[in-house]
Amino acid sequence: MTPRTLTRAAVAGFAAVALFGSAACGSGFDDSASDTKQSSGPATLQILIGSSGEAETKAVQEAAAKWASASGNTATVTPAQDLTQQLGQGLAGGTPPDVFYVDATRFADYASVGALEPYGDKISNKDDFYESLRTTFTYDGKLYCAPKDFSTLALEINTDLWAKAGLTDADVPTTWDQLTAVSQKIKAKKMVALALGDTRDRIGAFMVQNGGWLMSKDGKQPTADTPENLQALQYVKSLLANGYAKFPKQLDAGWSGEAFGRGKAVMTIEGNWIKGALQNDFPNVKYKVVPLPAGPKGQGTLSFTQCWGVAAKSKYKDQAIKFVEAMTAGDQQVTFAKAFGVMPSRQSVRDQYSTAFPADKPFIDAAAYAQGPVNAPKMDSVLRDLEAGLQGLTTGDPKTLLSNFDKNAKAALGG
Predict the structure, then answer these.
(1) Is 208:258 a contact under the CB 8 Å cutoff?
(2) Which CATH architecture has domain 3-151+305-371?
(3) Architecture, CATH, for domain 152-302+377-414
(4) The model's pTM
(5) Which tens digit of pLDDT belongs to each residue from 151-197?
(6) Domain boundaries, the chain
(7) Can you tell me the mean pLDDT for 38-48?
(8) How far is it, in rounded angstroms, from Cα 160 to Cα 175?
């Protein structure tokens, strides 16, 4: 698995104990953040990033140096060893970096305790960011931070195995029924149709395709226990029970991309990070990317994103916001995309990106119907319970799984 995939998959499992422990005791951040003396002179910005690797670190450091040189400020970019832990310690200790990556899975936790400066309305042309990304980083009606970049899920097809199963381009599934039909044909050829990750970050896409999701749009109410979500999980369960889909561990793989790369499945559902992983580990695999099959209620996918957080306690908020403005400019985002494979968060450069990366068009087009992560605070244990349930979905009861989520989420939010 690539570092970027690991970061996004694992970040929700880390605990910023120091941050949330102090906030829970009532000290929080709101009390003193507004009292932080602001410096209007040249800033010495500290920027902490959760880098996917050397290419990302180099690109961000170069962009920061360019901004600093032009603006008369200083900007030091540091790649974190463990972003959540280091950020939690800095925030709790009152010495946070001025600017830092905030993963969507952690955003509500930070926003709810006043750790973030809600600067979103100060960024130029904020409506140019995809609506789904703006929603992800909105808390209590405020756009807190500018989306840095994003990725979505699509369907990858091994073209050699597809042909071996007797399938053609006309068989590419665009609906659930068609996915079932091609899976039956693939199984008849003694192959596994779909390698599917056993997490909400993959299975959740089926809920969106049926008009459902786990939480309300404002992140205040759990909405898992609905007929739409139940039908979606029953469909996924049918794929698993019939042997059409298998979890990575059933295919002796660490993640779906590995199973796909090793030829253990004809199709998989992954994000655009799979491109780099296959180039590195399985360069001979021939594949194509297509949109996820639509469900009864239409197209749906999941998005994964981070924003540029500005610390509420920073002494250089104005300069930090100007730094973020430069990092999220359209041309700069295209430069980042070419350097380390992310998709720009601004709609105005979508065509520019698609021209540069035509094979990734299904990923960028999916922004129009993508659902962001659960955007509520204090949900770690609730989501871990959900993950455990999804891992047993083949023989489990989807209705119980969904009702348990709502019950646990209400308790967490009420607490």
Answers:
(1) no
(2) 3-Layer(aba) Sandwich (3.40)
(3) 3-Layer(aba) Sandwich (3.40)
(4) 0.88
(5) 999 999 999 999 999 999 999 999 999 999 999 999 999 999 999 99
(6) 3-151+305-371, 152-302+377-414
(7) 86
(8) 22
